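User: Earlier you gave me the apo prediction for this protein. Now I'd like the version with zinc ion bound, so I can compare the two side by side. Same sequence as before, with the ligand SMILES added.
Assistant: Got it. Here's the input I'm using:
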Amino acid sequence: MRKNYSQNDETPRRISLTDASKQAPAITARGDSLRLDEGAPPTLNDLAGALQFALGDGRIWLSDERIVLMQTRVLGKLRSQMIKEIGMDRTRDICMQVGWDEGLKLAELVRTRFSQDDMTAALAAGPRLHTMEGYAKVITKRFEYDVAKKEYLGEFYWFDSVEGTEHLRSFGVCDCPVCWMQLAVPSAYSTALLGFPVIFRELECVGQGAERCVVIGKDVESWGDDVPELRLFGLTESPKKKSKPWQPPKSVPMGLPTRNEAKDDIIGESPAIQRTKRLVDKVVAFSEPVMLLGEAGSGKEYFAKHLHSRGPTPNGPFVSVNCPAYEDSRPDDADPFLGEGGYIDQAKGGTLFLNDVVALNKSLQAKLALFLRDTTRKRPSLRVIAASGVSPTDAVANGALRSDLLYYLSVLPIQIPPLRERRDDLPALIQHFFDTHCARHTKPVAGLSGAVFDMLLRYDFPGNLHELSNMLERGVIYAEPGGQVEISHVFSVIENAPRISRRIGDDGNVYRPKSLAEVHAARTLEEVEVEAIRTALLDADWNISAAARKLGLTRARLDYRIKKLNLKKD
Ligand SMILES: [Zn+2]
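And here is the structure of the complex with zinc ion:
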């Protein structure tokens, strides 16, 4: 459960420090940036790997968050308009609150995508992300921390800060530091990772005419008594009085952090699913027949159950009929619907769900139409929800569906979008199915590897939610206990691994990564080896030791192979 530290509704998304400290990496309780191994992950390259351009799909992803490219002048314009309309103080507060939210998201990214135990490396990734996002070139002077004592001290330089530059452009030299949004990002990032409040302040700023911005981060105690940022960030509870000393987590948490969703909630916030949700909310309280339309696997039965559990008879029976089972009619067949103990009897006081209703044979369609005609005249004894994967009007046109049955069934039609039309919901859905299958198979899996996440975000899902669920179930079952779900666990021969996405290369260019098939189709063993070594070297920024670790070789052995294969850095 999240705990609120403030009643003020205007404060940004809050985090519980208790939660944060539970999620803090287990091993390093204190550290110093000066002692950090230079090649320690996540490197700038690792982080750039989380940035994906799904060209033509209208999406850029930073791990599971959608981002946009925006000119810095637009950001500057937005900022200067705010200052003119509501004043410097309010604008600063709002910018800082927005930056706080961003910092929390980045901490979550590093925690879930680069599951690792080194707190120093995790903290060091913050300035790298800040640099990668293009806000400023961040130079880490030094930072040190002690989790048990709740101490943090860090000093950073920001060169060419976007906010400072834009402020200068709009207003000229200012008498106070102005990189407000950027400043709250490391505050939130460090606070979320360390589990106690860390506040950053700007001592010098390019907006004041300085050569570069100088930024200092400290724990609250070190800042002294007056720390107004605590209220601004919703951290008003004094850390001195109430927080318990930090304890390392007892075990690796199972899976990714879970979100609290009611059991049969419709997951997703994309415009397409919101349209559907609005329709569902409108019809939910009525007893009139509902027709659910959507591709195979898009979740029609799930929606039917949702309507049932929130409808007028949530405690009544939910009877699901698979209509293709009654495709052929024989004259001597007993009537499965109207007969004694038939589906209609069973569903009395509840919901009768007719899946793939178009497949029902004509004789049963006629009987059902007659039944519905009679019940619509009086108070119905059950609710009928029908579903179809094909257009019912087409089915009427080609003679597969009786027009009167369609007329009775489709009083309230609801279209369910296919997964490819609600791609923004993918991160939440991936999370949901991953959690569900981990729980169902009671298997501790550390999470999805970044590469799997990227592949899933790019995949087209012709089989919709069913397919996504199947893939994640397969991933959970095939993953090593306590390990991560990898690409080979999720994508089998059935699916064509996606290849529409682009990444940032080391040269800063956007390029299309090779598909698995292309990689495997390499002709000779030597070519495969060259490819593997080259990739490892590029990933490790030509740090030979780090690349050797990645490849499972000794440094000497890799050195030898590099010379033998005549690989050069260029
Ligand atoms: Zn500045």
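For your comparison, keep in mind: The two ends are 51 Å apart (CA to CA).
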